[in-house]
């Protein structure tokens, strides 16, 4: 374990050295505007793509290769670390017993790409091509005049065994911190392959949308999502709705399921790389500090795209000087939404604020080497005591990555998410059939008694 850590540290030290040297001898002539191509592993790749010089990028590639080689050598000595960390933790219930039996074989077969570690997998979420899914966009206008969008994945853009029925189940997908539907195309392709109609909810200002009002969605505010779900229900009234959230999108989905409880219009949710208690993560230092800085960089790039619309309601100058997410939130979200301090902001927006109100089935997928939503944030006790919640952990997989394969890489977590929903629908279908049979058996006896 120590040898692997040392190898990775050496690689990243080399990155810092060459970046510092490149910055001294050759400044980038311009900083192109960032785009919404950030995924759940939004942070590191965005900085490389927008600010690094050629020397810096070459150094990064070299350091990545060195880290991988050292990692491989270390594994040859100490063996793989993944086995013991593959766990399913769930409360006692017939549902969780069924789901554990269904998902355990898939978990056992998960084999992370052998030449990666957590940092390399973060790089790969930016480098690995997404599936060629195309979208049809519905623009949503909210009650306050703000706008967001729903991007419907077109089944014609991938090979389908058969066309989707009008009542096909719908997977409503929520993107990461500064992401959009472009980062969710591979997940949409997986959903289509399983017979679901996927649609990505792009928040205000995301997915190339301009802000129609000077407002961004707060981290855990579910009002926009509720209106989006209502639009989906109106469009496909006979379909079952399910939610899948990645990274910050997992926080939004968790907020929705817990806040609405029995009134949820989603039958279940899957959270990929959730951070759980966001206040602990961002304000109490549980996030890796390097990734905290890089994520803040992507947030500042996002803010610059909407500077003209927001400059009267946020402290743009202060936000652009921020070096951490908590500092950025203080100048932007806290100020925009009228909170006195970060504690009061996160009290209302923390995804775990209403966890005792959770009643819908929930699967959470976390990698213990996630440098963003770190393992220290996982609330194991909550999963032990909740009969409809399930936690699936892997030793490796990083943040929204979970790549398998040697060179043709594919994200394992996408398949795991859809397998959970498949088995859940199977379980519910079996229960419904048993209920019908019980009614059929009891009816003659009731008639005879009458």
UniProtKB/TrEMBL annotation:
It comes from the Eukaryota. The active site is at 247 (charge relay system), 370 (charge relay system), 399 (charge relay system). The chain crosses the membrane at residues 57-78. The keyword Membrane applies. Residues 172-405 form the AB hydrolase-1 domain. GO terms for molecular function: monoacylglycerol lipase activity; short-chain carboxylesterase activity. The keyword Lipoprotein does not apply. It holds the Pfam family Abhydrolase_1. Belongs to the AB hydrolase superfamily. AB hydrolase 4 family. This is Protein ABHD15.
